[in-house]
Protein 1
Amino acid sequence: MHPTRHTARRLTARRRTALALAATAALALTACGAKDTPHADPHPHGGGPSASPAAHNAADSAFAREMIPHHRQALEMTDLADGRAASPAVRNLAAEIAKAQGPEITTLEGWLTSWGEQVPGAMHHSGEHVMAGMMSEADMKGLAKARGAAFDAAFLRLMIRHHEGAVTMAGTEREEGVHGPAKALARRIVRTQTAEIATMRKLSAGRD
């Protein structure tokens, strides 16, 4: 064989080998790139398990915004027990409710502030209620005028209704919210206030 032709064939074989190696390397890089490319977040609104603790949605905002005036009214009701309630059990229950819900209001207000949302202002009682279980102005005036056994009966009846509304609101947060701390607070509200409802029903039954 002519030496020039032999050399040309060797060069051609080398080129083919080099091209094959290059193609293989390119495919390998493409595969690695596909593995390293982050996938789109399947929970863009913070609903996934890896969501930031600060992530929240409209349900979280509504929970905080509505539970604040709801709790504030509960504190108004418990304040009335001092000097009006005849039963030590009712007075003690009122104190326990205030002890739990006061700090919860501070927590709820803090979330709204951190989210750049407005904290509800002073509550004005009216005949129409957005939040479940809220008392009307007439309810609050009637409770304020009652004394002794009449106050105890009215307080228990109205606070049971008030608690039932809070439990409903907390249940909505548990189902629709995404903010971990808010959902945890909702679970605590359901647990605590359900137990208090049972206590108040027993106290009411004991008065019959």
Protein 2
Amino acid sequence: MKHLQFAKIAILLWLVTIITLGYFFYYGNTSKSLDTRTAIHLTPAERQLVLTEMRALLEAVNGMLNGLGEKDYEKAAKSAEAVGMGLVASLEHQEKTILLKLPVSFKKLGFGTHEKFDSIAAKIRKKEEIHSILKDMDELTKNCVVCHASYKIELESEKK
């Protein structure tokens, strides 16, 4: 009889743990900010990593445009690839704890953006028509606009 009660308690604790982890996986460590964006709360080091990655994305867009403008397709493709899914893989060990703090919608947008850089790099390498590449870059930068309009990174100590 005691084993049955112990088993019920263990199952209940297991379910509570799974539900809690699921909640944080989906919503992350977030709150609504005063400007209606979703505030993502990170440690100072995690915040710095995310902001550094975002600056790298902007530098890559600049490098792509510069390379395309100079008809240096290799330079443009390398700029795009530098922040593709290879970057995500290289940061995997640093971002494991951050991924639990990010909402699913932010993760989808971020991974989609990195994949888009790889897709554009492939088009550049094939020297596809410039208007097609520019259209893809337009879609790519829309991800940036949506992200910055929807989210802000705050320190955990600023959590309201």
